[in-house]
Amino acid sequence: MANDISLTIRLPHELNTQLQAVAKEIGMTKTNLLRSAIHDFLITDDVNLVFVSSPGVKDRLVLNVNQITHGILEAACNKYSQSMNAVVTAVGILALERSSKWLQSAKQ
Length: 108
Description:
Distance between the termini: 38 Å
Order of helices and strands: EHHEHH
Mean pLDDT: 89
Radius of gyration: 13 Å
Helix content: 55-70%
Strand order of the largest sheet: 1-2
Number of helices: 4
Strand content: 5-15%
Structural class: alpha+beta
Largest sheet: 2 strands, antiparallel
Shape: globular
Low-confidence stretches: none
Number of strands: 2
């Protein structure tokens, strides 16, 4: 299935930079890391997303997704009453936390 839906997301600059670094370290692109996190975290009911309002510099990211991933995001937006941007940012924060923990344990 093609990633034929383009979403323009604005991520806090620091989160964007950290996601880029972690994705590079584990051998993925930042967009693949986010798409994977969407599937890993949003299809379960036991995930705790943290929604933050972060003023300051935002980096624009074009996230290409397929219809299934878009549907997962839309369902999460409805469930949490949040915008698509807020949901992707919250998933990015969770992905960063979990990936960082995994990288630390893998280095030991």
